[in-house]
Structure formats: C-alpha cells, structure tokens
Fold this protein.
Amino acid sequence: MTASTGSGAGTRPRRRADAERSIARIVAAARGRLGSDPNATTDDIAKAAGVGRMTLYGHFKTRAELVDAALRDAVQDGDRTLAAVDLRGDAYEAMRRLLVSSWALVAESAALLTAAQGVLPAGRVRELHAGPAVRVGELVRRGQDQGVFRTDMPTAWLVGVVQHILHGAAEDVRGGRLELPPGEVSDVVTKSVLAVLATPPAPGP
Amino acid sequence: MTASTGSGAGTRPRRRADAERSIARIVAAARGRLGSDPNATTDDIAKAAGVGRMTLYGHFKTRAELVDAALRDAVQDGDRTLAAVDLRGDAYEAMRRLLVSSWALVAESAALLTAAQGVLPAGRVRELHAGPAVRVGELVRRGQDQGVFRTDMPTAWLVGVVQHILHGAAEDVRGGRLELPPGEVSDVVTKSVLAVLATPPAPGP
DNA sequence: AATACCTCGTACGTTGATGTACGAGTTCTA
DNA sequence: TAGAACTCGTACATCAACGTACGAGGTATT
C-alpha cells in the first residue's frame, strides 16, 4: 500500500479518488507478480490488478517507473516494520527480533529486488534501500560498540552479508531448493546471520 | 577451456581441428562476457571470440545451449580446483584452504550462474552443480562429524549459505558496492563463511 | 589435390515485449 | 448535472534479440 506516486512529491494538481485506487491496486499487483517472477510483463501485472494495460500506462510511463514504484512501496513497508521493532538493549537480541519480524517481507520481495536490479540504474536501487540499510547499519555498529558483534570486518560488509543470506534463502525457497518447513526457515536464517555477526570466541588464528 | 562439446559424449564423427579451436574460443568468450554481464547477446559473445555470429550458430543451435556449455566448462574448472585442494585433516582448515583457492573462480562465474538460471531449466543448473556441491557437502559433513562444524542446521542449508555468501560478495564486487582492496575480499568472505559453519561456543539459548 | 568441412557476411523471418494513438464509454467532483 | 478526469479495448509502431537461409570462399584432412 502507501501510494504517494508523485515522482517529485508535493505540488500535485490532485488526483481523483478512483485513480488513486487504481494506482494502489497496480502497485500491489506489481509487488505480487514481480515478487514471484522478476520477468513478469506489464500485461501480467495489469491483469493481476484487474485493470486494463492502458490504464497502467496512464499512470506509469514506463515499465521501469512501475518497478521503481513497487520497490519504493515495498521498502517503505520494510522501513515501517523496522521502525516498529524495539532496537534498544542488547544488540544481539535486538537483531534477532529484527530478523524474525522482517524475514517474511524480505522473502516476498526478493524477486522484486532482482527485477529492479535488472531495470533500474544501479545507483537508484541503493538510494531506495538507503533507509533500511542505515537502520541495520546502526544496529550493527551499536552491537560492535557493545562488544557483541565482531569488529574485524567493515560494518558495510556485515550489513551486506545479512542481505545476502536473507536474499539467498528467499531464492532457495522460491526455487524449491530448500526442503524445510517454512516456519523453520526463519529460524535457520536468524541463526546463520547471528553467527556471522557475533564476536568470535577464541582469538581467531 | 576443456571443450568436450558433444552433448552425448563418446561416439562423434570427429571434428576438424579448426572447429575445435573455434568452439574453445567461443566457450571462453561466453564465460568472459556472461561473467561480466548476464544479458550479453550472442553477438557480443561472437565478437569477443573473434568469430562471426554464424559460426557460433554453427556450433550451438540455441543461446541456451551455449550458456549450458559455458557453465559446464566453468563448473569443470571449479571441480578441478576442488580436487586439487587437500581436504584431509582438520575440516575447518580444509574449508579455509578450499575457500581461498576457489574464491577467484566463483567470483568470475557468479554472473554466468545468474545467466544460466534465467535461461536453463531449474533442474539442469542443479545437475551441473552437483559435482562441486557434493564435494563441499562432504567436507561440511566431515566437519560436523569432527565436531568443528555446527549440527543444529541441515547440511544442505549450510552448503547453501556458503554459496550465498560467495555469490553475494561477487555481485557486490561486480557492482562496485564493496569498497575493499580486492585482496581483502577473499579474507572477509572466508572469515564470514567459517563463522557460520563453526560450532557455536555457548549453548545457544 | 580432391573433397568434405568450416568460416562468415548479408539478408530475412519470427517472436515477444514495450510503448503510442485514437476514441467511445464511465465515473468522480464541484 | 456539466465537464473534467479516468478507464480500457483495438490497433499499430518499434525495437531488440533470436534463429534461418543461401552461398561464396578458405582450410584441414586423406
């Protein structure tokens, strides 16, 4: 949800209510279809939205623009989820909470990300991810200050690893490569991520 | 390198030497181009091979067939690399050796894998990876038996995580998202992977 | 040296998706 | 309720990549 379709938010002539509704449905459909197939066509998406292809093009000049809107929407949801998680206290436990509550969303948007990477300029994708990335980065850094997360690797890399494990797991699930009860996936993902982040026990050789 | 282009190896009418050479160049070029851009066209590849597009189609009926051959070639190289690594003794150290010596190859073939996933049937990709995957899987299992690798997650998942971290790092490098001296990448990747695999210190809550 | 094999250019047919044009009908909004 | 905004079908223009056809030359092999 969360339309806010204007490229440059703010001064907008005002849109009619039904248009607003159409846009919301299209964006939702785009998230859904692109989330299960990164190559979904505009036609697929329009059909899934229960809307004519022309209506879609009435609101999004190009396919790229649509993908951008879909990703923006998904990221916004993610950011909201992150904001709702209590990140205070022990960073280790905070990270666990964060992973548990964001796994589902990340999983269903993994393919969407792939789609975006293929269509949007590289910089744009980073830009859209900036919000959540900063939040995670801050938590990681705080964990490092607390001594519970390792400091022998750059923070940026650690954040990257978190993403890679999440994204990889999502792809595995989507491709049926992972034979694991869906509920447990969240578990192993969480454990794996925390294992990377945690301060190593013995003085590493 | 390593042509062996016949789909059904063995009884083949025999090919002329120059054809063999062309094929080798084409496969090498395919690995190169697809390794830096998963969407490289047959035209790109032919040009990179210093060969006419028609010559290419003379040897590979479809683009998919070419991608298959390229991936097969890369995997074969990988398998050879793995075979050359001494996997005896402490599994932890063996894994470190394995990661160090295979990182470069994995990195340069990451995009090729992506290309293959888009074009080849899902099962085919797994089939091609079977060789190396089994080798890594065996090492992981051996580490679990030795008590140095964790046993609270399925072996298959652990193998998957190894791949995800490697692949993710490769993508980061390719996209310039990772600002790290190339030499150090191998280091952090190795450390990260080993952190996931290692037996956790305290009894996990 | 004869022959079968290989190279490779040009040109064409095909497919699949993107995006545009037009226009008639419908539904908000004021 | 008048008019602007929106929907949406059909039809078409475009484009990029794939793959095929033909045929004139080279080059390995025997």
